[in-house]
Input
Amino acid sequence: MTVLPLVIAPDPILKKKSKAVDVVDDVVRAFMDDMLETMYDSEGIGLAANQVGDLRRILVMDVAQREDDSAAKEPIAMANPAITWSSEELNVYQEGCLSIPDQYADVERPAEVKVTYLDRDGKEQHVHATGILATCVQHEIDHLNGVLFTDHISALKRSIIMKKSSKIKKARAADDS
Ligand code: NI
Output
């Protein structure tokens, strides 16, 4: 497995809508594994394919260690995820994003969602997500539609966070050169 380079905001690919996966084959499975490796390497709980420069509708998540470091890993990979139901009840979580390093903001979203997707074996699955998983899956599906968590907050907060991300991006690029 390979740790892939992360796309840092601002970047046009983070604003693009991703395209459906035709079939979950070995190539897609290997990519899902690389995405999980990349997510764990950065201590994230979710990652969408466009965050590693790929415009397929693929995301990975693992929220198991979010509350308990010693919990076993519970990797989830989804192709073509679609929200089929959202609760009226809302929840606020402080969200961050591997593409917007070290920046956080409260985001309000439906507290529960039902999601249909293709799993690692290409089998259709349905999940009723609650708690942090519900927030995480909505955040990642947003990525597949070119939407960032900063698109859910005030323009003022968004501009402050994007300026900071831009600075971090430049600093990292300078480090790499
Ligand atoms: Ni994100």
Remarks:
- The pocket of nickel (II) ion is lined by residues 97-99, 139, 143 (CB under 6 Å).
- The longest strand covers residues 76-86.
